């Protein structure tokens, strides 16, 4: 299940010091780490910290091998200036200060021609550190550059959750270890959040708990399950409704809890009268027996813990599906019990005010916000994507690789190829976005700078202090932001005198917590609310304190609601009154008979780790999983090259025959670099960036395609 070394393996040798940090990558686990420090600039093995009650000494194999990444021979160490055509790969080494001079000059040139909104600082979650990730916004707000609507990751799941509970808070995820049934729904945790399995497996060993996995294919998590529910992509809402139908029909609904804690249980029951297992079976591909058995299991097992993942946020109807799955725990009353209820994220518990880090005091809310998922449309001049404003002609990119990871890849690549677009990329490696840049700046890695992290999938604030010296050349994100602020005349607004430790210390103390030095000794702060609060026993986070079966889809505040300049998005008028299945998905049709999910690979994290030998060797090559019967119909055999396509383009990759998915469903695990594919184009050629209801998002697992043998 987990390839990382046991916590007792390779214990500290006399010449090796141990440093303590936190994993910085885009994962809800935010693992507490022990790092072998071989000298001032070299690390050895990385392990999970056994003293942290959530990490519990276990981390994923790719992070355990982090020395392979931080000491990689291809790591960027010198600033580079493009001297050939874009993407040609001809570079000249220059000094870091000279590089920043050029970036500032190009930004001022763009501003003078089109106004400040022509500059777009673009970033995301290559690091989840609050200082190094988010400080770019101080520069943005100080100069009134175009804003960024962060739509690419969380929106559908967060929105669906909050529509029910009112707040991103849930039971202590460590309670999975005292559950009698753990339902892992919409997340391949063995590959992406291995600590979930740590606690679920403990419940199975110590209590005989059942582990149920709901997903679209037989992935590594599914292989650990006692009950496997493999359904068609985008049909989770139908399954949830049929489960609740059975709960009401068979007297398994907790009517006392429903009356006390929910808004309209009678209306829900009437609505579900026609949402039978037979109805859901036709939609999901599950059998009636599978649906009814699952419903009876959760209905008779009071300590059922629903662990709901980010798979919900990859589908156009994901907000509805999340809300429907979440509603099951309210019908059973599972919230009342230790080891029961539902959990997605604890993002609202930490009480960290990022106003100073992000420069929110001087943010102009009238400045346009551009949708990060629509970067291809923005850079190719789509008027709607540009909010009818000026073109983007200058960018700095930190912590993300949009040429590889953003949807509508052909548009993204065409946008970056524009001769009138200046791009600076601050990176660890020569990514495919960096290859299209005019200036490439080398960046430090997480063990080489100070930062602070919060674990949405758990309950800790964790410090990540600098543990080793960076090699000569790379600079931190904060140093780059400050260097540009000084050159652009906004050093006072950006407060370039505040180093990372001061920013962390200020934020912690403003939130009534211990400061940087004390946290360095303590390593983390446990912020889990008390049992009644996290289980909503005193009421849900609405004025009437009731769980909402009837959400106000467009009138409700949400954790990542688009700014007023954007408004509600997608076909929100089609969102249902009660939990339901809605065909907002990209439905298969005669021209596109297959549904494609682009699921995470075990050894990559988005495009990170795709540069390391260990991860590439374990993943093999880009491929697509095909059901044996679909393969037989198209005369496709194991290892054959196939073409997948839709209205956005077509790519070639190798077929893997796999019976662990429904007919008509394809799964391509990634994200592989574009150049690793046969034609130099990656899987995101096939993914769309159309707005998702009600508050936006990127539906990476929601694609109709055709397939043929190549």
From TrEMBL:
Pfam families: Molybdop_Fe4S4, Molybdopterin, Molydop_binding. Keywords: Iron, Iron-sulfur, Metal-binding. Signal peptide: none annotated. SUPFAM superfamilies: ADC-like, Formate dehydrogenase/DMSO reductase, domains 1-3. Residues 16-74 form the 4Fe-4S Mo/W bis-MGD-type domain. It comes from the Bacteria. GO terms for molecular function: iron-sulfur cluster binding; metal ion binding; molybdopterin cofactor binding; oxidoreductase activity. InterPro entries: Asp_de-COase-like_dom_sf, MoPterin_dinucl-bd_dom, Mopterin_OxRdtase, Mopterin_OxRdtase_4Fe-4S_dom, Prok_Mopterin_Oxidored, YoaE_C. The keyword Iron-sulfur applies. The keyword Magnesium does not apply. CDD domains: MopB_3, MopB_CT_3. Belongs to the prokaryotic molybdopterin-containing oxidoreductase family. This is Molybdopterin oxidoreductase family protein. It comes from Georhizobium profundi.
């Amino acid at each position: 299940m987990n390839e990382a070394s046991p916590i007792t393996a390779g214990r500290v040798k006399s010449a090796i010091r141990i440093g303590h940090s936190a994993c910085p990558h885009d994962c809800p686990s935010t693992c507490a780490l022990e790092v072998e420090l071989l000298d001032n600039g070299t690390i050895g093995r990385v392990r999970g910290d056994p003293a942290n009650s959530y990490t519990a000494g276990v981390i994923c194999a790719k992070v355990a091998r982090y020395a392979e990444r931080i000491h990689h021979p291809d790591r960027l160490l010198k600033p580079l200036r493009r001297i050939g055509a874009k993407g040609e790969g001809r570079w000249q080494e220059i000094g870091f200060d000279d590089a920043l001079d050029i970036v500032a000059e190009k930004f001022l040139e763009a501003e003078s021609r089109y106004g400040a909104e022509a500059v777009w600082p673009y970033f995301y979650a290559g690091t989840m550190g609050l200082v190094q990730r988010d400080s770019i916004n101080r520069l943005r707000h100080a100069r009134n550059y175009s804003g960024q609507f962060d739509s690419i990751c969380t929106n559908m799941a967060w929105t669906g959750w909050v529509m029910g509970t009112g707040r991103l808070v849930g039971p202590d995820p460590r309670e999975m270890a005292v559950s009698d049934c753990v339902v892992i729904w919409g997340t391949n945790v063995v590959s992406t959040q291995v600590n979930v399995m740590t606690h679920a497996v403990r419940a199975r060993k110590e209590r005989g708990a059942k582990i149920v996995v709901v997903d679209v294919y037989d992935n590594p998590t599914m292989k650990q399950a006692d009950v496997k529910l493999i359904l068609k992509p985008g049909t989770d809402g139908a399954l949830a409704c049929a489960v609740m139908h059975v709960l009401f029909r068979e007297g398994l609904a907790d009517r006392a809890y429903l009356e006390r804690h929910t808004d309209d249980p009678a209306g829900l029951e009437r609505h579900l009268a026609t949402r039978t297992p037979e109805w859901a079976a036709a939609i999901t591909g599950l059998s009636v027996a599978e649906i009814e058995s699952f419903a009876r299991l959760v209905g008779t097992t009071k300590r059922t813990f629903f662990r709901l993942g980010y798979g919900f946020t990859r589908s156009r109807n994901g907000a509805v599906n999340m809300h429907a799955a979440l509603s099951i725990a309210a019908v059973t009353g599972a919230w009342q019990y230790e080891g029961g209820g539902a959990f997605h994220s604890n993002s609202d518990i930490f009480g960290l005010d990022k106003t100073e880090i992000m420069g929110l005091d001087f943010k102009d809310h009238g400045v346009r916000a551009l949708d990060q998922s629509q970067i291809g449309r923005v850079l190719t001049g789509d008027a709607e994507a540009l909010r009818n404003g000026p073109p983007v002609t200058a960018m700095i990119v930190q912590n993300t690789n949009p040429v590889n990871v953003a949807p509508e890849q052909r548009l993204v690549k065409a946008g970056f190829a524009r001769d009138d677009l200046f791009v600076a990329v601050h990176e660890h490696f020569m990514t495919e976005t960096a290859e299209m840049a005019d200036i490439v700046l080398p960046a430090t890695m997480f063990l080489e700078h100070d930062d602070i992290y919060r674990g949405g999938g758990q309950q800790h604030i964790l410090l990540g202090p600098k543990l080793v010296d960076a090699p000569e050349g790379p600079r931190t994100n904060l140093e780059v932001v400050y260097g540009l602020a000084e050159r652009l005349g906004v050093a006072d607004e950006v407060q370039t005198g505040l180093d990372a430790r001061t920013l962390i210390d200020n934020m912690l103390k403003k939130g009534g917590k211990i400061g940087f030095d004390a946290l360095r000794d303590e390593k983390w702060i446990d912020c889990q609310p008390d049992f009644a609060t996290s289980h909503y026993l005193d009421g849900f986070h609405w004025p009437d304190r009731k769980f909402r079966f009837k959400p106000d889809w467009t009138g409700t505040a949400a954790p990542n609601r688009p700014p007023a300049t954007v408004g509600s998005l997608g076909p929100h008028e089609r969102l249902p009154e009660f939990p339901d299945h809605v065909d907002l998905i990209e439905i298969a049709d005669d021209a596109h008979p297959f549904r494609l999910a682009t699921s995470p690979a075990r050894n990559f994290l988005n495009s990170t780790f795709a540069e390391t030998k260990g991860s590439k060797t374990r993943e093999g090559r880009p491929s697509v999983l095909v059901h044996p019967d679909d393969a037989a119909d198209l005369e496709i055999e194991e290892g054959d090259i196939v073409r997948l396509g839709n209205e956005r383009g077509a790519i070639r990759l190798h077929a893997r025959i796999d019976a662990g998915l429904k007919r008509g469903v394809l799964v391509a695990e990634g994200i592989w670099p574009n150049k690793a594919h046969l034609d130099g184009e990656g899987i995101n050629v096939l993914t769309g960036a159309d707005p998702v209801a009600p508050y936006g998002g990127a539906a990476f697992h929601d694609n109709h395609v055709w397939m043929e043998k190549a």
